[in-house]
Structure to design on (296 residues):
């Protein structure tokens, strides 16, 4: 089991919000028919973010080949991608809601294209840059780490690793450590330098109506701390995995109702209806479970 534990920032975010939701999405065994239920219950809003990310990568790849997109082409591609994701997730949504999602996506895209880095790439300021595949992973020790940046841009002998987040939560003290996972990925990927000071990392994420850019200078120590963070995350996830195999009902629930409001598992989770009540019931269950196991 140890070797199968995978880390990505998306997994980490969900794990911190709710270990039960994390387990249902990433830790739960796949059904025998091979269709993973977790992919068919994503919210339309999340599908919109997914479509945006997909189109961003396509548009950046075209930009690398100096192909510009017209607003009409962007709209068409976004629409096509969103329709595809909705269909794949067996979702039906009202036409008005679909159109509203498209408008959100178009608006965010328009603002993203005004970001300094994108404009510099459009002006062909940097001759050496790559669009990377976020699904490519590296193996670090016994863990598989998904932490590829979206872009790697060579600027004055430094590799600038850039990650785009279509939506981010409030700032956290671990943001810098999480961003350094891109350096860990690059060092283990091959073809990139081994020295931490040969990099700068940037995260560009949408929060409360704006694209926010955070930039960090990695050091040997901060990248080492990032590795420690990843390892402790994987151990905690492994613990939850073991816990779930003993009794699914005892898996820790979200600490905040806000997490449940946007959770795709809420219809079949006691926390989805009333989180406080679910916590109380779980405490009782734990008492019964522990007293039963202490008698055996
Ligand atoms: S509904 Fe709430 S408690 Fe239940 S899995 Fe989702 S986030 Fe966790």
């Amino acid at each position: 089991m140890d070797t199968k534990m995978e880390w990505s920032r998306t997994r980490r975010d969900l794990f911190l919000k709710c270990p039960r939701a994390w387990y249902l999405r990433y830790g739960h065994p796949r059904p025998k028919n091979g269709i993973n239920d977790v992919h068919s219950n994503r919210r339309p809003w999340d599908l919109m973010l997914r479509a945006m990310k997909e189109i961003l990568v396509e548009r950046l790849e075209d930009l690398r080949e100096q192909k510009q997109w017209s607003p009409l082409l962007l709209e068409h591609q976004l629409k096509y991608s969103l329709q595809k994701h909705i269909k794949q997730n067996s979702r039906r949504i009202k036409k008005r809601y679909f159109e509203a999602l498209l408008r959100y996506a178009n608006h965010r895209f328009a603002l993203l294209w005004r970001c300094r880095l994108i404009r510099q790439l459009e002006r062909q300021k940097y001759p050496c840059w790559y669009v990377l595949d976020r699904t490519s992973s590296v193996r670090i020790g016994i863990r598989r780490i998904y932490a590829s940046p979206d872009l790697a841009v060579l600027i004055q002998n430094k590799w600038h690793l850039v990650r785009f987040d279509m939506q981010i939560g409030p700032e956290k003290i671990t943001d810098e450590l999480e961003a350094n996972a891109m350096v860990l990925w690059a060092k283990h990927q091959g073809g990139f330098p081994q020295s931490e000071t040969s990099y700068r990392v940037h995260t560009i994420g949408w929060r409360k109506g704006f694209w926010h850019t955070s930039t960090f200078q990695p050091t040997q120590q901060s990248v080492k701390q990032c590795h420690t963070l990843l390892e402790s995350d994987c151990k905690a996830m492994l613990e939850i995995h073991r816990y779930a195999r003993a009794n699914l009902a005892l898996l820790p629930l979200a600490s905040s109702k806000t997490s449940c409001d946007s959770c795709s598992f809420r219809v079949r989770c006691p926390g989805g209806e009333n989180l406080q009540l679910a916590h109380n019931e779980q405490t009782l269950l734990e008492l019964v479970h522990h007293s039963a196991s202490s008698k055996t």
User: Anything to note?
Assistant: The pocket of iron/sulfur cluster is lined by residues 18, 20-21, 253-254, 259-260, 263, 265-266, 269, 271-272 (CB under 6 Å). The beta strands are 6-8, 129-131, 138-140, 143-146, 151-155, 158-165, 199-207, 210-216. The longest strand covers residues 199-207.
